[in-house]
Amino acid sequence: MTEPGPPPPGTTAQREARARAEPQTHITLLRHGEPDWSPAGGRSVSDPGLTPFGQAQARAVAKRLSSQRFDAIYVSPYRRSQETAVPLAEALGIEPVTVDGLAEIGVSVEGLTQEEVDRYFVEGSKRPLEQHWEGWPGAESFVDFHTRVTGGVTDVLGRHGLRSAREQDFTIWEVPDSPACIAIVAHGGTNACALTHLLDIDPVPWEWLRFETQLAAFSVLQTRAVGSRGAVWSLQNFNEVDHLASAGLR
């Protein structure tokens, strides 16, 4: 089969490709690999590391991303994200920076059996909708979680000269002349909140379902100029998992 070539000169596809290729700030949101929630088959722990399978996932995504340019890696304080970031950081020669605001939403499952953990999440999901703003039972509220994550993302972007402002009913970002390429290694809920925030979408207390990603998957946003000044965020890739299939990890 003949491989498709580049789009013909002057076509819409080529113009769009040129626009995407222009220097832009990029954010890659990477979810951690498979966590070992119940080490040695015991009771649940609140801050698990990766399973051997999760470590293989981390190596696969590092191999996939290591050929790209990154200026910085920011990581959640939780072990599963820290361990996922290690192969990528080693491949790129970049020291990861821990940002507490990127931690996953708090849950209350420490010391529970797997059956009790499953019941905790099922019963929590079945509560009346307005109660979902309270977060998972007995833990961090979604309102606090969303505020914490958006603050963490704002802090990360501010370190690279990106700042937001409201204009009319929109959020417009000030982008520096030297675009940055940033990796964030965090969690399903954290990354979903980051997407909602950057795409200027009103939040809901089940972000991890609205922007659901697989373990060790990544999504990519880039800035695009809009209006007379500033930029907005454009979602270029979502839930990318081809690297896992290539490594036999799906």
Concise description?
With 250 residues, the chain is of the alpha/beta class. It has helices spanning 12-21, 52-65, 79-92, 114-125, 142-158, 188-198, 207-210, 242-246, and strands spanning 26-31, 72-75, 97-98, 163-167, 170-174, 181-186, 218-225, 231-240. It has a six-stranded mixed sheet with strand order 3-2-6-1-7-8.
Features:
alpha/beta, two-stranded antiparallel sheet, Rossmann fold
How would you sum up this structure, described in words?
The chain has helices at residues 12-21, 52-65, 79-92, 114-125, 142-158, 188-198, 207-210, 242-246, and strands at 26-31, 72-75, 97-98, 163-167, 170-174, 181-186, 218-225, 231-240. The chain has a six-stranded mixed beta sheet. With 250 residues, it is an alpha/beta fold. Helix 2 runs parallel beside helix 3 (79-92) and helix 5 (142-158) crosses helix 6. It has eight helices and eight strands; from the N terminus they run H-E-H-E-H-E-H-H-E-E-E-H-H-E-E-H. The chain has a single domain, classed as 3-Layer(aba) Sandwich (Rossmann fold).
